[in-house]
């Protein structure tokens, strides 16, 4: 079993009140780690350290190339420790080993992208603002200051990198609060930042609970910006609390993404794609394809093929290479998902596969839920409206492309979406009409660090990744540089200023 302390101002320290919590392996229920539990005072200490490091420390004043060099050291450390980090991620989060390998690899790749971004300059002239010879106008981009970053449990290391990478590349200092369910790889990351010699206070990592350390970060006046990823319900609270100090906020929240199969789709491809869209990581993905929209003319045969493959999905030990689906992250999450399944049946949807805990006694300690498929779903049902965040697919039918688009857009969410068709033009026409931040055509789950990612509607505010993403961690500044120089030629010469 591992033990971790808080990382504040370049030191590993106990929580001010000495409290700890344990992180549990969701497959075996063994304790993976005992972790110091950051409270309000610890969040205040971390915010103060980050403030000092921003206002008086070297980090914001380093050259972009120097910042990039520091970040590169962490990329190398993640790459060196891949196998170890994969094992920890599997134990702490219940991620299958196949997914965890991809996550750790992508964490290093994503951070490497931010190293390159750190060395880019976004500054440029603002053209056409005044006549030549009157003034020069520059648009400068500066770090926003101290960033409070709050992340969920579904991709623990990757989510930490998605916040730390752009925030640090832009010259900010950061306090990161990982999820209380999966603190382990974030604390390993703290060690890597420490070993890489980052100046004290630039990176602070405080594992703790949302209403304690998380809420304090959102309210603390020393924090300039909150970058939050998590549920829409908590996102609303974060936005409200941040309004007290008018903090900048970016929110990456929940989804209920519609997966539209058009009647000319390659059926084999679309069946596999639909399974991947919903059951990857046990359905615990914000942009999972949770609502499957099938053309009524093809729905029966599509569903039959989908069910034939769903029956073959292997639940098991997430550390086993042959396991397709592991446990959910916690007992609470398992109960929540089972509650939604019960509600689906109660409201009249037809349960055509799964719906409960697996019977296999070797899985009895894990927080498993079988891959579950409901047909005959109507978009007004709870299982079509609310984010379940588990392996539950709601299948609906439609008659026309227009109807499919209308159903897809009838949601408070707008994070992802997908269209399957052999006709690229037809698919693109449908994709453009979906009110969502990312729409895949004949694909799913591909999120690139070069493309902005985020939500329409209540799926979020702002974007991660791409140039749009890094600018969320910057303030824009207009620099007006006078080129007239002579008092009499000023346009305000005849206004309020007395001539003598
Ligand atoms: P959650 O909202 O319960 O918690 C997210 C984080 O917020 C955790 O660190 C938690 O401790 C913290 N938190 C909780 N209450 C808080 C408060 N009052 N003030 C400040 N912080 C608080 O979400 P979760 O269950 O950890 O993660 C699942 C959710 O995350 C899903 O809704 C999923 O869609 C979303 N998610 C979104 C994206 C995206 O990019 N849009 C990515 C991953 C996950």
Highlighted features:
500 residues; alpha/beta; Aldehyde Dehydrogenase, Chain A, domain 1; Aldehyde Dehydrogenase, Chain A, domain 2; 2 domains; seven-stranded mixed sheet; six-stranded mixed sheet; 15 helices; 21% strand; globular; binds nicotinamide-adenine-dinucleotide
* CA distance, first residue to last residue: 80 Å
Number of strands: 23
Largest sheet: 7 strands, mixed
Indicate the mean pLDDT: 97
CATH architecture of the largest domain: 3-Layer(aba) Sandwich
Strand order of the largest sheet: 15-16-17-14-13-19-20
Backbone CA Rg: 25 Å
- CATH topology description of the largest domain: Aldehyde Dehydrogenase, Chain A, domain 1
Query: What is the overall number of helices?
Result: 15
Give the cofactors and ligands.
Answer: nicotinamide-adenine-dinucleotide
The CATH H-level superfamily of the largest domain is: Aldehyde Dehydrogenase, Chain A, domain 1
Oligomer: single chain
The low-confidence runs, each spanning 5 or more residues with pLDDT under 50, are none
Assign an overall shape.
Answer: globular
**Global structural class:** alpha/beta
Helix content: 25-40%
Question: What is the name of the CATH class of the largest domain?
Answer: Alpha Beta
